[in-house]
Reverse transcriptase-like protein (Levilactobacillus suantsaiihabitans), 134 residues
Amino acid sequence: MFSLYTDAATQPQTGLSAGGILIIQDHQQTQLKLPLTATTNHTAEFEIARLGFEHLLTLTDQPESTTVLFYTDSQIVSDSVAKRYAKHYQLWVDALLAVQDPFQLVLTQWVPERENRGAHTLANQALHSAEDVK
């Protein structure tokens, strides 16, 4: 079983986005900070969630017998996954659902930002790094 926490950060003035991924398995943490192509916060949240699941696929050779507890502080990501629909973000929803599909079970839980601090901190660090490069 994996616990996956994701968060995105976007600088509205520049359109730069970055994300953080925190994966916990057997009391071991994997932390990733990634620049994103998305230019709005909502699309960045979908993108980093998809990238989180893509990374999980590299960590297990048997996703069909793997459970993932997915935590996000993005209400739109959480709601859209539950409904399998988002009016303005359906392509992003479909991409996220497709990368979740190989797993036996994915339980999505919305959490307040204060309970997603690990991924939030990673996302902000990645955004600051991207701003320094630009």
The chain has one domain: 2-133. The mean pLDDT is 95. The helical segments are 41-59, 75-83, 90-100, 117-133. The chain is about 40% helix and 30% strand.
